[in-house]
Amino acid sequence: MLSVNNLYVKYGLIEAIHDVSFQVNQGEIVSLIGANGAGKTSILRTISGLVRPAAGSVHFEGVAIEKEAPQKIVRKGLSQVPEGRHVFSGLTVQENLEMGAFLRNDAEIKADYESVYSRFPVLKERRKQDAATLSGGEQQMLAMGRALMSRPKLLLLDEPSMGLAPIFIREIFSIIQEIKAQGTTVLLIEQNANMALSIADRGYVLETGKIVLEGTGQELLASESVKKAYLGG
After folding, report:
1. Residues 6+ apart with CB under 8 A from 63
2. DSSP three-state, residue 107
């Protein structure tokens, strides 16, 4: 479904991503793990069209998208939940979800609101509240619900557990598995390597802008180098 090939990303003279290649197959959860500053977010922002690569290509369903505008990429079926959530704090919960459906004009939007509220019941309770009044975990749920309102084929999640209490982290990862079970492919960027790999079909380890290891989620969890670097083993 997604193919990233020989990707280079630079910010001025700084090379953030160096010759990165990986793929995401339809129906998978693929986790990309690495320390803070390894380049994970730069990869997602490039896939989303927010950053232009210095070299390399990004193909979605066989079509090159690395030069497309972000809104066109969303129309093709990719939606990103950004690091730090970035909900529209001055809008209500319902209005945030409406922004997620901004590019749509079909008869299923109302049903999709109800689907999001069914998945995240706390959002239904707070649908008329400003997003700024929600807790961090509730804002993460809202950011995910907003992304799902675009009906993505591929959902890009950037550090969904960041800053959340353990109870919310477990709930978010359970919801990610539900999203996959209902047919949405997931690319997960995450510092919580144990949680990310435990739900992943496959994973990649990123260090200083390069992929240094790949395998199934279970293979990477069992890897001594991954244990030592990311799991406290």
Report:
1. 76
2. coil
